[in-house]
Structure formats: structure tokens, C-alpha cells
Specification:
single chain; 157 residues; Immunoglobulin-like; 2 domains; five-stranded antiparallel sheet; elongated
Amino acid sequence: MELSKNIFFNTDKLIENTKVKISYTGNLFNDGSKEVFIHYGFGINWDNVNEIQMERTELGFQAEVELIESDTFNFCFRNDNNVWDNNEGQNYVFQIEKLPTELLVLDDEPVSLGSAKKLRRSYLWSKKIRLAVYKIITYLPKIISGNYKRKLTDTNN
């Protein structure tokens, strides 16, 4: 996902409590900086400020950041000579989406014995029905044609 002309994320959406990989190909990459750091925080007050060194690759400088619960992800870049790329004083600010709750599976929720018995009973009934359908499909044509008796092999010949 391209978020600006020189910043790419490895995902379509920034979602809280996930990791995101950032690729930076801006001015500090183009001017040949040896080391680039991403300086980042969360929310309007730049909570949980952190700074990590990015890895230089052919695709730009890259780093992986853990997104926390917040409404925005704010960051800027600096090189080892303390030259900053802060989006002309605006910083880079992107919305963080909440984790979709309909996809969460709650493993610690107890299953009642009654619902477990109902599931087992419905499974057994579906198995019995499948077996009955199989027998009808297999043996009904033989019964109709009169060819339902087992063939005896003549071993005396």
C-alpha cells in the first residue's frame, strides 16, 4: 500500500495491535544516507514515542513497527547527521483502524454440556442419514431389478 509518494506499508490497512513493515524511499534514501531512523508515536499527543534504526535495502529503508491501540500512527525520519524528513513540518500521520471484533474467536468461553450433547446428536443423525441415503442409492436399483440376492460361486466345478 502506498501511503505517500515515498512511504509504503506491507498492508492495505493499519490495524491496532498488529505489526506493520514500513518502506521509506524519500529524500534521506535518495541523498545516500548511511543510517536512517524512524521516530514515531501514537495519537494526537505522540504517546509511546520510540525511535528505531531502519535497515537499508534495494527497496529503501525498512523497519517493522508494532501498532498499539490508538487512533493515529505518527512518524518522521532522521539520518545519522540529524537531518530530518518530517513531511515539511506536518509529520506523517495515518489512521489506525480497530481490530474487527467479528473475526475474534473466544477460546476461553465454556461450552455447556447440553449444547455439546446437541452437537453430538446432530452429528450422529447426519451420519445415519448419509448412510441411509447411500444404502438406498446402492441397493434400491438391485431390489427393483430383482437382482438383490448374493451370488453364490460354484466351487464344485
